[in-house]
Amino acid sequence: MRKQDWTELKRRYDEEGFLVFPQVLDPELVRVASDHVEWLQKKNPELRPEQLHHWLMWDDPFWVRLVADSRLLDLVEPILGPNIALFASHYICKPGGDGQPVLWHQDGSYWPLEPMEVVSGWLAVDASTRENGCMRVIRGSHKGPMLTHRKHDKEAVLGTEISPEEVDASRAVDVEIPAGGVSLHHPMLIHGSNPNRCSKRRCGLTIRYIPTTTRITRPNWKSFVLRGQPVEGINEYSSFPEYREGEHFPGYRELPQRAEGKGQRAGG
Hints:
This protein is an alpha+beta fold. Helix content is 18%, strand content 24%. The protein has a single domain (14-254), classed as q2cbj1_9rhob like domain (Jelly Rolls). It has four helices and 14 strands.
C-alpha cells in the first residue's frame, strides 16, 4: 500500500476510531484457521466457543504464527510503528442459534497496559454479517472519556458492560466483513455485538497488538515480539512455541512462509 494511501487511512482511524479491510488473508489460510477453531473446541469441550481465550495460545504454534502473519502486521505498522508485539488474542465464535452477545464496552477498560497504546485487530474467520451478530461500533466514540463498566448477570461474552443509558445505540454502525477480512479499532472505541440467532456460525479472532514501548503491568503475562525489536527493560517476551507432532494442531504445517515473527526476548 502506498504511503499516501496510509496517510488517508490513518486520518480516518484517528477520526472514526476504526478501519475495515475486506480482503487480507487468502481463503486457504482462513479455512485452516476455521479447522483450528474446531480443533480447539474438541480439546476444550468445557468452554463455550465464545471463550477460546489468550492462555490457550501460549503453547499453540499455529495461533502464534497466525497473528504474526506479515499481512496483518502490515496493517498495524502505520499506526503503531515498526516494533510490534502481541499482547493478547481470543477467538470469539458465536454458534448458530444461541451465540452470545458482546455488550457495549471499551477494550481499554480491561487491559493492564501503560500507556494504552494498542490496536485491536479483528480477523473474520467466518463472514461477519448483521444476521449472525457482527461487531457494531459507535463511530468517533474513542474521542470521549473512559466510561464506567458495571457487572451484569446476562448471558454474554464479557462480564461487564457500559450502561445502555450511556450509549446512543441509534448511532451504531454495523461492521460487516467477509471471511479473511480484518477490522482495526481503537482501545477507547465503544463497541459490541448482537447475539447470533441465525443458523450460521460467526467466528472471529481478536488480536491485540502493542508497540514494544508499551508496558504490560500484569506479572507473568506471556507475550511475543512479532516484528522489529523489543525495548530493554519494558517487557519480557516469550519464544515462539515449537511444533510437536501429535500434540499441536496439524494445520501448523500449512502456514505460509510470510508468517514472520521470531519470538525475541528482552528483560523486564
